[in-house]
Amino acid sequence: MGKKRVMTPAKDVDLSSTKYKREVVQAPHLTGFVFRLFVRIIEAPLIGPIIMNILKKENKMDEILRHTVIPEEPMFKPEYPPQEMEPGVVVLEEDGRPEDRVESALKCLPHYDVAELWENSSASFRYWKIRDYAHAYRSRKVTPSMVAERIISIIEDNGRNKPPTPLLISFDAAEVREQAAASTQRFEAGNPLSILDGIFMAIKDDIDCYPHPSKGATTWMHEVRTVKEDAVCVSRLRTCGVIFIGKANMHELGMGTTGNNPNYGTTRNPHAPDRYTGGSSSGPAAIVASGLCSAALGTDGGGSVRIPSSLCGVVGFKTTYGRTSMEGSLCDSGTVEIIGPIASTVEDVLLVYSAMLGASPANRISLKPSPPCLPSLSSNDNSNALGSLRIGKYTPWFNDVHSTEISDKCDEALNLLSKAHGCEMIEIVIPELLEMRTAHVVSIGSECLCSLNPDCEDGKGVNLTYDTRTSLALFRSFTAADYVAAQCIRRRSMYYHLEIFKKVDVIVTPTTGMTAPIIPPSALKSGETDMQTTGNGLASPLGYYSLMICSAAL
């Protein structure tokens, strides 16, 4: 009998017969000399493709992509399903001024308790929320210029730390002082631009923030791509008075989930300097987690905002694809990447998101997104806004973690939601998870390769880190037929999730299947390849949900 297999149409799949099967990524963990030698071999013309074919076969990629008849038609870009407006939400105007959207978002929040920070706080460390800074500025307790001097001092001292903890790739103290002085003058005149005026943020190094270059944490990207203006998202935040401290460190070109970067140094976890932050938005998450900034912007196509936020103990939001414009970023031509906010609280994520949102003209035509909206949490009528929430949990997947402590803590949070708010827990089944993961790797990998090919053909590829070169070697092994097959799987996954969301409002999983990995000393100079950790622990739940638009109006 041949290798061919035929999938049952998604609409006819019996979910009750679906059995969860844990799939372990088959790939070596390499660092140092052995890693460098491995990269040379997989880039070799004859033996390289052979090794890649073996790795793909061991991970069932060929079986899924080349030996399988997938009856669904391809879905080359995420789609917005028809959606009714939910009760208790506030609709935001995409074409309106960012300052007005922020004001609308502010009205969605519960009453601000001044005493919580200024009178009853005895903690040695706490995160200042955006509203804390706004109150301090308006009451003349502190000014943006005063805060700027404190941040500049810390950043400059940070450069002398042992071991090095590089947070920023591009930083200009004079430029930060200039922005802070302008904000201070606005407050002195009684004319702050918005609640975000004077709020300090860091921008990931693959998002344009003029006058800083965008290197994508490479050593050469700024030589072939000039930054002439802010990215659209950055421009909208600047309109609201946000102060940008510089360009944050990251995993080179976003092609990794640890945050390792031999080019500029590896950002370390503020809670445990011997451990990774997670990636690829390593710098933004570490800056927020260390308390330097209230918020930061990262990019996310497979967990790159959510993973480091989770491992650093802050909040990361992967917006629905198309909700925010990607114009002015290095990853502006794909179908999975978004720009998303990182902050210490959900409240602050909501405020930053409201300022930066707004689909590009092209996406409004092709995606036809429903109006963006936020939950109204400000009135007594909505004091139990979570009470009607139906939470979907695929228990075998939920519990597939490296340590039961992770799933136990997540269960505790769910039990608290149920007891405090009466949320309903509903058991669900999500079929074909391995197929979804494979489709995601092929989709994001092919799109990354397409954008980098011209520069690689010009000889820049050899200047990339060994980690990135390993990923590109894999991506080059994908064919056009593989890409189309992946989009057929995307269509199947979309169908399954549309059916699931008829029964639940959200799907809940642990963000990552493991805690922050320890940084191998041998990985600091040349990097490392550890696809098992990436696939089985760090990005296991997240890449799946970068493929499609699943639900909510956010």
TrEMBL record:
<dbReference type="InterPro" id="IPR036928">
    <property type="entry name" value="AS_sf"/>
</dbReference>
<keyword id="KW-0378">Hydrolase</keyword>
<protein>
    <submittedName>
        <fullName>Fatty acid amide hydrolase isoform F</fullName>
        <ecNumber>6.3.5.7</ecNumber>
    </submittedName>
</protein>
<dbReference type="GO" id="GO:0016020">
    <property type="term" value="C:membrane"/>
</dbReference>
<feature type="domain" description="Amidase">
    <location>
        <begin position="169"/>
        <end position="518"/>
    </location>
</feature>
<dbReference type="Pfam" id="PF01425">
    <property type="entry name" value="Amidase"/>
</dbReference>
<dbReference type="GO" id="GO:0050567">
    <property type="term" value="F:glutaminyl-tRNA synthase (glutamine-hydrolyzing) activity"/>
</dbReference>
<dbReference type="InterPro" id="IPR000120">
    <property type="entry name" value="Amidase"/>
</dbReference>
<comment type="similarity">
    <text>Belongs to the amidase family.</text>
</comment>
<dbReference type="GO" id="GO:0070291">
    <property type="term" value="P:N-acylethanolamine metabolic process"/>
</dbReference>
<dbReference type="InterPro" id="IPR023631">
    <property type="entry name" value="Amidase_dom"/>
</dbReference>
<dbReference type="GO" id="GO:0047412">
    <property type="term" value="F:N-(long-chain-acyl)ethanolamine deacylase activity"/>
</dbReference>
<dbReference type="InterPro" id="IPR020556">
    <property type="entry name" value="Amidase_CS"/>
</dbReference>
<keyword id="KW-0436">Ligase</keyword>
